[in-house]
Design a protein that fits this description.
With 121 residues, the protein is an alpha+beta fold. It has three helices and seven strands. 16% of the residues lie in helices and 31% in strands.
């Protein structure tokens, strides 16, 4: 059982409030916003943040799954910071917003490898 005495009110957040949160690179450039969270059904841990990126006025935007471990919350920005630049993000694994996308373990491993993150799968 988790030690709930170590959890403080400021470290928990409702998933609805995470959606729409901005994602920045270390230079402060806004990369996109979090549209969804992929959560492990068994552990309840957030594994991926699904970020929208690219396009213009919503046209051509794609979803970019980011391993949750790559995100760091920055209170001063009111958003997450990820150590990426736009060029690296442009080549990252994505899927179209209109696509009926099926997540597979192979796709998850591809995402984890691309970001050099610990493999969930």
């Amino acid at each position: 059982m988790a030690d709930i005495t170590r959890i403080t009110p400021n470290t928990l957040i409702n998933a609805e409030r995470v959606e729409g949160t901005s994602v920045y690179n270390p230079q402060g450039d806004k990369l996109g916003t979090i549209d969804d969270i992929m959560i492990d059904k068994v552990s309840g841990k957030a594994i991926y943040a699904i970020m929208s990126f690219g396009g213009f006025l919503g046209i051509g935007e794609k979803y970019h799954p980011l391993p949750w471990s790559t995100l760091n919350y920055d209170e001063s920005k009111g958003g997450y910071v990820v150590n990426l630049d736009k060029k690296l993000l442009e080549r990252a694994p994505t899927y179209d917003m209109d696509e009926d996308f099926q997540w597979t373990p192979d796709y998850g491993r591809q995402v984890d490898r691309y970001y050099n993150a610990p493999t969930y799968w």
